[in-house]
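Title: Prediction job returns without error message
Component: structure pipeline
Severity: low
Priority: P3
Assignee: unassigned

Description:
Job completed but the reporter wants confirmation the result is attached to the right record. Sequence as submitted:
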Amino acid sequence: DIAAAVTDASARFDHVFTSGGVGPTHDDITMAAISRGFGTTVMRHPELEAKVRGYWKDQLADANLRLADVPDGAELVYGPDPASKIWPVVCYRNVYILPGVLALLGRKFVEIRDRFRSEPVTAARLYLDIEEGELAPHLDAVVAAHPSVRVGSYPRFAERDFRVLATLEGPIAGEVGAAFEALALRLGARVVRREEPHRVG
């Protein structure tokens, strides 16, 4: 089941994260399952083995060496925290193999999260007292004039002071700002509230 689920997710998504099953006991089968799913074998990584031996020294139990077993071809991902120099995250292709203990899982993800950051964008919002049908041609005009800006329209039914939330996002601050001002100018008094362009991400 693990082999099938991981390989299916790997084919459909940019990044896959597993949690648990990476310890020294009989039920820790994640490494073997991922290896099977991708048609490779489990190998004892010499760098990890040295770390395991160094950590336990003369208290090492043979079973602890299973912590050095990874899918053949896996990458060891180190983060900025000194603790990650002891226990890196194992990555095979686009699958990040994380521990199941929540405290360790959280710490390991923090270590690798910079890999998944997208470029920051500039975002802005206009809160509008207008129906979407009437708004549509104004949005069309702004989208045509500013193709690098993503424009969204979201009707609201529970709020009393506005009926549509219009969002504008893009990688170029000046373009988002120009699209924002153009839409606000076209709608005039229909703009109930403005959330000025700002960087996010």
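Comment from assignee: result matches the submitted record. The chain has a mean pLDDT of 93.
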